Sequence to fold (214 residues):
Amino acid sequence: MSNEILENLKKAILEYESEKAANLAREALEKKIDPAKALNVMTEAVRQVGDGFGRGELWLPDLVGAADAMQSAMPIIQKEIERKGMKVETLGVVVVGTVFGDIHSIGKTMVCTLLAAEGFTVYDLGVNVTAEKFIEAVKKYKADILAMSALMTMTAPEQRKVIAILKKENLRDKVKVMVGGGSLTEEFAKNIGADGYDPTAPGGAKLARRLLNK
Fold:
């Protein structure tokens, strides 16, 4: 029974069925299935979609669909892992958010999902995140990486503001900063003092590994 539930959970993500994925995540916990096993099959499914996208076999809507399904089930599983005080192997801790004044979430959600699939512990702060909230989260979660998204030209400078506060708080040397979003360029990322930039969600997930030499 447990294997069947896990296979169906994986299938729900591969078929982009968000509600079904959430329901199966709950069912897995009700049946006392190890939440770490549930997390593994979910990340395996998303990695499969991400790899297909990277090879040009799948398209952006596929990536968005898998990300949405993963995001619907992930909080349910993560909450149980935290409740049990379980230690899950991780490549590092990443705090992610869309900067203040910007409410675009699709790219950020995909990055979060693919980071999780790569093996990172991800804390998604959501959209319209103030500089102060980014700093607070970096401290609270002891982040290895801070990833900021900005789709609009007028909100991109918020990323510079966050980096400036990191320096002021003597945190800049303790956390890698990666940025992304439709309005950004490699040159802009360098100018604001970010450690890395990538224009795509799959590229962002790979960048995180490179920044931590993983």
Remarks:
- The first helix runs from residue 2 to 14.
